[in-house]
Design goal:
Layout: E1 3-6, H1 8-13, E2 15-16, E3 19-20, H2 22-25, H3 32-35, H4 39-52, H5 65-73, H6 80-85, H7 88-107, H8 110-115, H9 120-131, E4 139-141, E5 147-151
Antiparallel strand pairs: 1-5, 2-3, 4-5
């Protein structure tokens, strides 16, 4: 069953004028070009440290862990034994990495790159990309002004 995560605090902590900030998000989900040969380890360690700090504790409840595992299981990248063997910290750190990567899609829209900021126009471009399946589109701003992340298929 899909879950909707309120990621407002995460976005706010890593934002500029209320919009996601690529420089901060790169710490959680960055490429080899950005971090060098150890990009995977660098971003993974940052996600684990963030989860261990307790900053993400109110976003995913233990009741949601099975849903998170089921969502990840559908990728086919890991077998059941590996997924079931992850600690709660590792599971949540992977979700943080997904969220950061998807928010970086928003920050990477053509409009955001040209204006060097994310604004309503860039967000509309991101939504259009999600509608056409050119972008993931799992992160979105609700009518209430909060940021959410859809975790499910």
């Amino acid at each position: 069953m899909p879950i909707e995560l309120n990621i407002t605090k995460f976005v706010t902590e890593h934002s500029f004028d209320g919009w996601p900030n690529n420089d901060d998000l790169m710490d959680f989900s960055g490429s080899r070009m950005e971090h060098g040969d150890d990009a995977g380890r660098i971003t993974w360690d940052h996600c684990v440290d963030y989860v261990e700090s307790g900053e993400f504790a109110d976003v995913i409840s233990p009741d949601d862990y099975d849903e998170c595992r089921d969502y990840i299981r559908d990728f086919g990248a890991w077998d059941d034994d590996e997924i079931n063997g992850w600690s709660d910290t590792e599971l949540i750190a992977l979700v943080v990495q997904f969220i950061a990567g998807d928010l970086r899609e928003l920050v990477s829209s053509d409009t955001a790159i040209k204006s060097r900021t994310v604004d309503c126009e860039a967000y509309e471009e991101y939504q259009a990309g999600a509608s056409s399946e050119d972008m993931c589109g799992r992160a979105y701003r609700g009518d209430d002004g909060n940021w959410y992340y859809f975790l499910g298929n």
